[in-house]
Every structure is written in structure tokens, then in C-alpha cells.
Write a structure and sequence with these properties.
The chain is mostly helical. 74% of the residues lie in helices and 3% in strands. Helix 1 packs antiparallel against helix 4 and helix 4 crosses helix 6. The longest helix has 30 residues.
Length: 155
């Protein structure tokens, strides 16, 4: 392991920890997303794509900003996860997209389950889909950056 790869892993780990802290705040405490209001009942959606379709169909009622925040926000929020995981953990440094998607799905499942149990937000299978997509995009972004770095270093 080179000195630079060790430093790179430390930076990735610190960024990952910062990402986890921000993600937890957004998922559990964000007042802008009404996370500070605990529901009196369990809220969940187990039907794939139903909330995605509902938000898209109701975009004129909710406003396009709410629709974009709900749909795109779930994707964007998990891009750092997919980007940083392979950089942080040396054992999966050269892993494939399937492993990163599985790890993203599991992390998202933990978050959704905690939201359900604590009655903060809702357990939504569509969030699992969108979050996993975000992790995949993050992984592809990391691979693209790595490709161009290696190409630059080869010349």
C-alpha cells in the first residue's frame, strides 16, 4: 500500500463519517422534512413505484420542487455512499457495482426500518429503490474518476 493510498483511504473514511452524520440528520432530525414530528402511527409503503408514481402524478399539486426533492433527493443523497465505500474499504476497493448496490440497499434498509420503528418519516420501498440507484450512480462516478486519473497518469 502506498503512502498516498493510505492517506486517500483516511480522507475517504473521514468524508464517509461526515456523510453518515449529515445523512442521519436529514433522515431523522431535519425540520424541513418534518422529521422532528413523531407520528402516532406507523407509516409505510410496500408497493414498488407507487409513491414515485404518486409524486409524479401530483407534481402540479405539490409543486415541482417538492417532487424533485422527494424523487431526486433520495437518489442524490446516496451518491456519496456509492462513491466513498469502495475508496474507504480496501477489501472492496476493486469490487463491482453489484456489491456496492447491495451495501447501499442494506444501509438504506436500516435507515427505513429505523424511521418505521421510531415513527419518524415512513418506511418506503420506493426510497430503497431510489437510494440504491443513487449508490449505483456514485459507484459509476467513482469508476469514471478513477479511469480518467489512471489515464492521465499513464500519459
Amino acid at each position: 500500500m502506498s503512502k498516498n493510498s493510505g492517506k486517500s483511504r483516511i480522507v475517504a473514511t473521514l468524508l464517509f463519517l461526515l456523510y453518515i452524520a449529515v445523512a442521519c440528520y436529514i433522515m431523522f432530525f431535519s425540520e424541513g422534512l418534518d422529521r422532528n414530528k413523531v407520528s402516532s402511527q406507523y407509516r409505510y409503503n410496500l408497493v414498488p413505484f407507487s409513491e414515485i408514481k404518486r409524486f409524479w402524478a401530483m407534481r402540479k399539486n405539490y409543486g415541482i420542487a417538492v417532487t424533485i426533492i422527494n424523487l431526486l433527493g433520495n437518489v442524490v443523497c446516496f451518491i456519496p455512499f456509492g462513491y466513498l465505500i469502495p475508496k474507504m474499504i480496501k477489501y472492496i476497493k476493486n469490487t463491482n457495482i453489484v456489491v456496492v448496490m447491495a451495501l447501499t440497499f442494506m444501509f438504506s434498509l436500516v435507515i427505513e426500518t429505523i424511521q418505521l420503528v421510531l415513527k419518524v418519516g415512513a418506511f418506503d420501498v420506493d426510497d430503497l429503490i431510489l437510494n440504491t440507484l443513487g449508490g449505483a450512480i456514485g459507484y459509476l462516478l467513482m469508476k469514471t474518476v478513477r479511469f480518467f486519473k489512471e489515464r492521465k497518469n499513464a500519459t
